[in-house]
Amino acid sequence: MQADMRTEPGRIQFRPGRAGFTLIEVIFATLAFTVIVLVMKMTFSGALTMRNRLESRMEWENRVTVGLTILKKDLEGMIVSGGALAGEILADPSGGMGQNGGQMEFFTTTGIISDLAPWGDIQRVRYSLGQPRIGNFVINSSTNLGFGLLRDVQRNIAAQIQDVPETTQVLDRVEAMTFQLFDGVTWLNSWDSTTSDPAMPLAVRVTLQLHMNHSTFEDQRLTMREILVPIHVTKPAAAETDESAESDDQPPAGQSAGL
To answer: CA dihedral defined by 77, 68, 157, 242, rounded to 10 degrees?
Structure first.
């Protein structure tokens, strides 16, 4: 507003038609700006929440992939009794966790030789379900979903007294795990290479039920992961040589050994 000073002394007159913003206009403008700010905040907040959830899901998928890769490599390198450093293959459907957890113990050729572990590449491995842990610290299972997939490793298997196995957690949030071994005819839930025929299974199938990374006690969402590992068993070259030598020593049919 502009005052007109060309009036009588002591009176100030305002010219109509040249007024500024009214109080109602200021209020409406403030409300409009507030609504815009709230919409922008909600949009960015939703995008940030979606990004965090996607990043958490990808991290969980990577952990599952790494854990299954370790398990698959151990199964692919499985060996059976027959040598000085080879032991039996044992699979138990109960595994100490009732119907939820099976366990399997076997020898495999996935050991890495180093200055701290100079015992060769054969190691004893046992997979089972147990209390979840972070490093060497066990976590209270009442605050976590599922169990931890534990991998016990013994490297110095030639020692008279077996070393305490080194336990690491391969996966967490595992609700159930089953091992099935194929003998050429059917899939078996248990296995003992000392009594089974054949001693070495032809394939191993592992099924895991996992809690999704964003699931809670109120909303428990399970997903299934399955790996199928064929066991390729080849006859040693020395055995083939011995058999060929024995076949050469046998006389042809119709001839005696002295002829």
So the answer is: -10
Structure tokens at 192: 């003992």
Q: 3-state class of 222 per DSSP? A: strand
30: its two tokens: 């403030």
How many of the other CB atoms lie within 10 Å of CB of 90?
15
| Residue 94, φ and ψ in degrees, nearest 5 | -85, -55
Alpha carbon 85 to its chain centroid, in Å, reads: 29
Q: Cβ atoms within 10 A of the Cβ of 120, count?
A: 14
**Residue from 179, 154, 180, 186 nearest 168 by CA:** 154
Question: Following CA atoms 80, 199, 181, 238 in sequence, which dihedral angle do they give, to the nearest 10 degrees?
Answer: 50
- Positive or negative CA dihedral for 60, 231, 176, 71? negative
Element (H, E) at 134: strand 133-134
pLDDT band at 239 (very low <50, low <70, confident <90, very high): very low
Q: Report d(CA 49, CA 129) in Å as an integer.
A: 33
List, for residues 68-77, the tens digit of each pLDDT value: 999 999 999 9
Within 8 A by CB and 6+ apart from 84, the residues are 158
